[in-house]
Model the fold of this input.
Amino acid sequence: MNYPHPLLAREGWPFIGLAALLSLVVTWLWGWKVALPAYVILVFVIQFFRDPPRAIPEQANAVLSPADGRIVKIEKVRDPYADRDALLISVFMNVFNVHSNRASVTGRVRAVHYFPGLFVNADLDKASTENERNAVIIDTHVDGQNQVVTLVQVAGLIARRILCYVHPGDALDKGQRYGFIRFGSRVDVYLPLSAVPCVAPGDVVSATSTVLATL
Done:
């Protein structure tokens, strides 16, 4: 599970290599002017798969953002994965955001559930329940009390691949990389009702470095 944050996500290496090879071949055959669109694509692919290291806030009860993006929803709902009432905070990622997913809290993975589904716009409310998604339920301890945090990777209109690298029983450190979603998507964070939000709808957040709420 250790991941050294090599600036470019390992999930992107084949795509970057292919785009670079295409650019070089077109340049060799027809010159750099004809190859200019290929280089534009190469730059886009590199920026999409960037995976920079992030500073981790030291606040013990902080729930960190699992993804870069924009807050699209904060409301009390039913967490269908942990079967409880919960506070939901949803982070929408567009194609220009970093798509590496990081653990919001330190804890142990209780369960991982994958659900096949649709690929509607991840910005829509129904994406949380109808799209392809992967839920990770984490048991964490704050001030000696057990708390449950559920992180749900949701595929989007363009996204066709959710990657999750953790399994039940795995230990997670706050800010640790645990998954990746290719091309535009969403991460739903289900928290205890007692959690206090630190963000508002419309806020732009960064994975790991932004505190979504406190437990």
